[in-house]
TrEMBL record:
Short sequence motif Histidine triad motif: positions: 102-106
Listed Gene3D superfamilies: HIT-like
Organism: Actinorugispora endophytica
Protein name, UniProt field: Histidine triad (HIT) family protein
Catalytic-site annotation from UniProt: 104
Superkingdom classification of source: Bacteria
InterPro entries, sorted: Histidine_triad_HIT, HIT-like, HIT-like_sf
Segments forming domain HIT: 9-118
Pfam family, one: HIT
């Protein structure tokens, strides 16, 4: 794991080089609105440090995934969707739909979610 990568879009957002609609910042995570929202609330929650995906962050055993989930819950409460329900998605790998290879959780809510997704 490297702290940041100059070729990574999300590392550049964390560094303030690329603008984003930030909704919450913490010591280890940043959350911002998705530029292509798939629901009325669509926020990406990312670590400040670069991990390529959820599996890499989990293997590091740093508690980072717990922190991302906790922050997503706080955002859901602030956005008014915690009571009605929300979805938190981690795509891992291109076959799963991951397009930016920096760990990010998609917080989706504000509409009904179907099952199965995809």
């Amino acid at each position: 794991m490297s702290v940041s990568r100059p070729d990574c879009l999300f590392c550049r957002i964390v560094a303030g080089e690329v603008p984003a609609d930030v909704v919450r910042e913490g010591e280890r995570v940043v959350a911002f609105r998705d530029v292509n929202p798939q629901a009325p609330t669509h926020v990406l929650v990312i670590p400040r440090d670069h991990y390529p995906d959820a599996a890499a962050a989990g293997a590091a055993r740093s508690g980072l995934l717990d922190e991302i989930v906790r922050e997503a819950g706080e955002i859901a409460r602030a956005e008014g969707i915690a009571e009605t329900g929300y979805r938190l998605v981690f795509n891992t790998g291109s076959a799963a739909g991951q397009t930016v290879f920096h760990l990010h959780g998609h917080l989706l809510g504000g509409r009904g979610m179907e099952w199965p997704p995809g």
